[in-house]
Amino acid sequence: MTEVVLVTGGSRGIGAAVCRRLAKDGCAVVVNYAANRDAADALVAEMTSAGGIARAVQGDVQNEADVLKMFDVADSLGTLVGLVNNAGVVDQSQRLDEMSLERLTRMFSINVIGSFLCAREAVRRMSTRHGGKGGGIVNLGSAASKLGSPGQYVDYAAAKGAIDTMTVGLAKEVADEGIRVNAVRPGIIDTEIHASGGLPERVGDLAPTLPMKRAGTADEVANAIIWLLSEDASYTTGAILDVSGGRATLP
Ligand code: NAP
């Protein structure tokens, strides 16, 4: 049986690091991306030339038809055993009293509803209740859910708070159906997401203020995700793992 893992936003940053590890470990990987086809194609070429099985699938996680399409591709490759709900966006720094409805809708639609739609499709396939063989879901939260991100993106922080809550609730809902649901909550990680929010220097600027005096790498977050997906984490569900180098951990 070919085991398949779908990684939303798998083409760049943390998602790409996860895809590389999964392919190396012998999984077939569905690499979802939104717009940057070149990055997705380059990653898939890298993985397949190393002997892996991977497909790039364009799709916007907030669009139900796109989500169904990416899961169809997963089904065509083998048996779905994992979902990494990684696609996520930030926006320009703003106070809440400046935020438009359009911004808020996009923020919650991609970061929350997109993750819910993908989790729904994964449960429909992996749950023993639906005839599936079980599997794992890892959601990408953020240290922002605890910090609140004032003056920057309270909307993003709140959307990630919803991901924390969904992780706990869904984990309990499907715990006896063969599915484990966990989250990682990264701190400041060196990817392009900061530039997409208009702060390309954010990682360098914040590094001296962080407990380890450095940002994390995508690979360091991927290590935690891979562990949570693996059988080594067989009794871990509903967990939210801070991968933040000590930032925003509760006392
Ligand atoms: P990134 O480098 O900006 O990459 C984002 C990925 O998501 C890209 O593959 C992008 O596709 C895809 N994507 C964006 N919008 C999408 C949509 N609507 N539908 C499908 N795919 C979409 O991000 P990252 O830093 O790796 O972040 C990954 C996750 O970790 C996010 O959920 C983020 O909130 C979370 N996180 C990151 C940090 C950090 O410091 N980096 C900290 C805390 C949490 P395209 O290439 O097509 O644009």
Automatic annotation (TrEMBL):
<dbReference type="InterPro" id="IPR036291">
    <property type="entry name" value="NAD(P)-bd_dom_sf"/>
</dbReference>
<dbReference type="InterPro" id="IPR002347">
    <property type="entry name" value="SDR_fam"/>
</dbReference>
<protein>
    <submittedName>
        <fullName>SDR family oxidoreductase</fullName>
    </submittedName>
</protein>
<keyword id="KW-0560">Oxidoreductase</keyword>
<dbReference type="Pfam" id="PF13561">
    <property type="entry name" value="adh_short_C2"/>
</dbReference>
<dbReference type="InterPro" id="IPR057326">
    <property type="entry name" value="KR_dom"/>
</dbReference>
<feature type="domain" description="Ketoreductase">
    <location>
        <begin position="3"/>
        <end position="191"/>
    </location>
</feature>
<comment type="similarity">
    <text>Belongs to the short-chain dehydrogenases/reductases (SDR) family.</text>
</comment>
<dbReference type="InterPro" id="IPR020904">
    <property type="entry name" value="Sc_DH/Rdtase_CS"/>
</dbReference>
